[in-house]
Design brief:
The protein is mostly helical. It has one domain. Helix content is about 75%, strand content about 0%. It is built from 22 helices and no strands. Helix 7 packs parallel to helix 9.
Length: about 425
């Protein structure tokens, strides 16, 4: 037990091994997804087991079992699977296509690029995935760019910005789920806190895209078909989550409504319903398993004194609640830049952020918002992240072509930092 009270830098070796392996493989191969994250984490877990030989193997197993059995880890894993089920069902039912077409049908030609950003915001909040939003909207953005004088890089940049808006706000986003569960706050409280911080950035982003796209125009000759009934599951999930309905009820209810709508409209065959749900659940396996393995690593790192060492270092460099919030922001941004995965970054940084909150009196909803915001900032800007790589692949551009138009992630960071610095704080007795 003494090891828990005394901070030890060497206890962080497993995390260092993960970063070296993951980043090294990406640098050497030129592909930051050449090394599967789960493989690198398993190697790191092996290193953690080899440390501290005074502690018997059986006790180490007990430690990680307690870590994995934590209520937040179990709940988070189950929510991941439920979110995957909803995503698979609503996509198979045609909800994504109808939502996109509905937005474009009411989009005034004079605000095409800004409109892409707004539609991206709505879809990403509804779908809970930045990657899904980019996949759905990027081909449309390419078509708009080809029919007009708009820069393709600017159109794709608007899509990526919109995707990152919902990535840290959506009730069913894996990043939001991870942030809320690692910090122990309510989803609704985190949303309200998060929304107030990013709203100025979103509004300013709209203005910048309107100014950058002045003089352009576009027309879509063919009629865009959409069905309001197919958009209904997204609306129900969003309204239910905002109303404070239990997240499991919201996701399971949304999945059931999606299946009913898909069958009723003829989009989804009755015998394919469970396959659609199963494919969505399967898509969440990676992040679920990674969350479990990371919980094992963090449990051992904490037992060996690694978390305490980080807290000791932070305590020497920051003073009070404001400094703690800046520390959480910097930590999250750094971990995301190293892992190129914002959900993994939150899962890794979350336990450390929670200890910082307990030490300096930062509210859980505030901490969860900072984790989600700054992991999205990093993920929306790094050229080797999945979001920019996907957008570049779908448009034939390079990530560096798109980066000058990534207004929103930059403004989101600026807005969050200003909120940290300028927010009035109640004096604590």
């Amino acid at each position: 037990m003494d090891q828990q009270k005394q901070g030890r830098a060497i206890a962080l070796l497993p995390i260092g091994v993960f970063l070296v392996i993951f980043l090294g493989a990406g640098i050497l191969s030129g592909d930051f997804y050449a090394m599967p994250a789960i493989v690198a984490f398993l190697i790191a877990l092996g290193v953690a087991f080899m440390q501290n030989r005074k502690l018997p193997f059986g006790e180490k197993m007990q430690i990680i079992a307690k870590g994995v059995g934590d209520e937040n880890i179990i709940t988070m894993s189950l929510i991941f699977l439920c979110a995957g089920a909803f995503s698979g069902a609503v996509s198979a039912a045609g909800g994504v296509e109808s939502t996109v077409n509905l937005g474009l049908s009411v989009l005034p030609p004079s605000v095409a690029v800004a409109g892409l950003f707004v539609i991206g915001c709505f879809i990403s909040v509804s779908m809970g995935t930045s990657m899904g939003t980019i996949s759905a909207l990027a081909p449309i953005a390419v078509g708009i760019a080809e029919k007009t004088g708009f820069s393709m890089a600017m159109c794709i940049g608007a899509v990526v910005c919109g995707a990152m808006f919902g990535d840290n706000l959506s009730m069913i986003s894996d990043t939001t789920i991870a942030a809320v569960k690692t910090q122990g706050c309510e989803m609704r409280d985190k949303f309200k806190e998060n929304f107030l911080i990013v709203l100025p950035a979103a509004l300013l982003t709209i203005v910048l895209f309107l100014v950058a796209a002045q003089g352009g125009n576009f027309e879509i000759p063919e009629a865009l078909e959409y069905d309001l009934l197919k958009v209904l599951p997204y609306v129900l999930v969003l309204v239910g989550a905002l109303a404070g309905v239990n997240v499991f009820v919201v996701l399971i209810g949304g999945t059931i409504v999606s299946l009913i709508v898909g069958v009723a409209t003829g989009t989804l065959a009755l015998d394919n319903m469970f396959q659609a749900v199963g494919s969505g659940i399967t898509s969440m396996y990676d992040i679920t398993v990674i969350s479990i393995i990371v919980a094992c690593i963090v449990s051992l790192v904490r037992e060996y004194g690694g978390i305490q060492w980080i807290l000791d270092c932070i305590r020497k460099r920051i003073r009070g609640e404001k400094g703690a919030e800046l520390g959480i922001a910097g930590l999250t941004l750094l971990v995301d830049a190293c892992t190129a995965n914002n959900t993994v970054a939150i899962v890794m940084a979350g336990p450390i952020a929670k200890d910082i909150c307990d030490t300096y009196g930062v509210s859980p909803k505030r901490s969860a918002s900072l984790l989600d915001i700054f992991s999205s900032v990093g993920q929306g800007l790094i050229p080797y992240g999945a979001q920019l790589l996907s957008a570049a692949t779908l448009s034939g551009l390079t990530p560096f072509d798109i980066m000058p138009y990534l207004y929103y992630p930059i403004l989101m960071a600026v807005s969050a930092i200003l909120f940290i610095i300028c927010r009035k704080r109640k004096e604590k007795k």
